[in-house]
């Protein structure tokens, strides 16, 4: 077994120490190999100057391995064996090593959606509870550009320290069902006859939402595959004529994809006054749609995602990441300049 294959839980970072656990019972013969693998992972990603791994020191129900940072300085990797799990910890006086190591280990966390846990710990609004669920299932991805590259956004031209990936929602049916139920409650206050999803990310969401509210659905292609191909699939023109259409997508940035769908729906005789998204990045999409006389509705948004009312035990976000994300959202162009990246002012196609 390699260290990267260990499922990890119960993360805690404090002065000089990271604690975490694995639900696996590690066999004594595996411990030395795992310690060696951890050292190589640590040296490759966190501290390339690390000198080596020392011999393990065995106690009654524990093993401790020194990691030589220099000839005079060591860190320690500890394994503590419980009846049904193994507790691990990493100790060092170099505080600067803990934050990146925490982010690296966090990628191996066991994802267990727990709505009751969130309800108990998030004293916020529905957008904040929904955002907490997205954090909990790993739909919110972050990067500081050191352990992995910044994410490519805006048609893969610009960079971002945060990426909202809702394609994983069908993998967590209880979470998906909760979000759809809350979306249906919001939409109960609006009148529409049809639901239109946008390929490809929102088709499953649009279909399940349509089923929840007992409305027919179809979908809009992002672009024509060939000249004769229709942009709207699954509906005939006479079925669309004078019908009120709710446009649905998973996220919105600028709103240009939605604009193409809205214009096509209206060109075919449909009425489109509302667009609903699961997540609004608050980067101009609302204003873009308002210019088209289409109101943007959302389940959650950027402000809820970064709310201090969502505890770090749920987000597992470090303060360094939090400040980086705020810096990016407050001034994307300035953030790109600071990082040495070109910034592209994109225009709708």
TrEMBL record:
List the Gene Ontology MF annotations in alphabetical order: orotate phosphoribosyltransferase activity
Q: Does the UniProt entry include the keyword rRNA-binding?
A: no
Keywords, A to Z, come to: Pyrimidine biosynthesis
Q: Which Pfam families match?
A: Pribosyltran
- GO:BP terms for this protein? pyrimidine nucleobase biosynthetic process; UMP biosynthetic process
- What InterPro entries does this protein's entry cite? PRTase-like (IPR029057), PRTase_dom (IPR000836)
The pathway where this protein functions is: Pyrimidine metabolism; UMP biosynthesis via de novo pathway
Question: Record's superkingdom?
Answer: Bacteria
Protein name per UniProt: Phosphoribosyltransferase domain-containing protein
Identify the species of origin.
candidate division WOR-3 bacterium
User: What lineage does UniProt assign to this protein's organism?
Assistant: Bacteria, Bacteria division WOR-3
